[in-house]
Amino acid sequence: xxxxxxxxxxxxxxxxxxxxxxxxxxxxxxxxxxxxxxxxxxxxxxxxxxxxxxxxxxxxxxxxxxxxxxxxxxxxxxxxxxxxxxxxxxxxxxxxxxxxxxxxxxxxxxxxxxxxxxxxxxxxxxxxxxxxxxxxxxxxxxxxxxxxxxxxxxxxxxxxxxxxxxxxxxxxxxxxxxxxxxxxxxxxxxxxxxxxxxxxxxxxxxxxxxxxxxxxxxxxxxxxxxxxxxxxxxxxxxxxxxxxxxxxxxxxxxxxxxxxxxxxxxxxxxxxxxxxxxxxxxxxxxxxxxxxxxxxxxxxxxxxxxxxxxxxxxxxxxxxxxxxxxxxxxxxxxxxxxxxxxxxxxxxxxxxxxxxxxxxxxxxxxxxxxxxxxxxxxxxx
Length: 381
Description:
- The chain is of the alpha+beta class.
- It has three domains: 4-211, Sandwich (Jelly Rolls); 216-268, no CATH class; 281-378, CATH 3.40.366.30.
- Helix content is 25%, strand content 24%.
- The chain contains twelve helices and 18 strands.
- It has helices spanning 11-18, 32-36, 41-47, 76-80, 94-97, 99-102, 216-230, 253-264, 270-281, 298-303, 344-350, 364-372, and strands at residues 4-5, 24-26, 55-59, 68-71, 87-91, 116-124, 138-143, 147-153, 177-182, 187-190, 196-202, 204-211, 307-310, 316-320, 326-331, 334-339, 355-356, 376-378.
- It has a nine-stranded mixed β-sheet. A three-stranded antiparallel β-sheet has the order 9-8-11, with no helix packed on it. Strands 17-13-18 form a three-stranded antiparallel β-sheet.
- Helix 7 packs across helix 9.
- The two termini are 46 Å apart.
């Protein structure tokens, strides 16, 4: 069965047939004008020189044991020594550094954008590859300039055997799958744990849009820290339902259940709901606040119907609270509450197109905070 679809699946088809289930390829899914505005290899190399940017360079050797992976920041002279084949430069969080590349996210509104991890960009000359591997997350691979040949597994890989004594998790043996060659604008979806390998046939840029859910340990740890910081008044476990069978050292099954209930009851409260929206919308890289006094005239901005816009990299999440018609909204690192009747504000921001500040007339304080945090900015029209 071919990986290649005639058209992008609908949202319903995507979740029923593909999400976590099987990969696909859509030809020319991303328009040429969007591809032309993506970050190029020179800008990518420039970012890899920066201390705060996460970058790495993978080189393939003649033998399996010859694979190497170096981490940035790099120096300019490093690239002059690489040669013209068999290496790959990868840079994380490009959506935070390059507005043109962040525009890609608009094409993935059929996905849960609140699970977005980042956009990674990679450049490879001919023969460049990071080897056969699996990922623990969903990824969409957008082909920019150039041409790459991919092999993608038919099903999730259960037993993973990696090459020993190298710093990369590269599969030791081949896997069953389908090969496909992609060119500008083509998109491949690869679910978690599906083996895949791409090799550049000519100098190529690839943009990886990754969706990564947290581990259970991360959820419990981060939620615990949130409670400690924001709700220190939550009561301790006091053993209210213990009986004489708990004396002196025994913990009976019903006592275990009592403790579990104490731990899990909080997940049914607004504490957890508010944390979820904040956790999933909070950016990997903190946005720089606007310049001091940049938006002191927020009421004038509303009165003058100034056009505003949300950057595509800013995640938004909203969910109902216990109180009827009340919703918790998180945009970037800002969390606030809205009535159901005011959720159109969220819908306007989520379109990632210019809209009038007038809609914030009853919520000027919220708008002030959104502007001060650069979650909304004045649109360039």
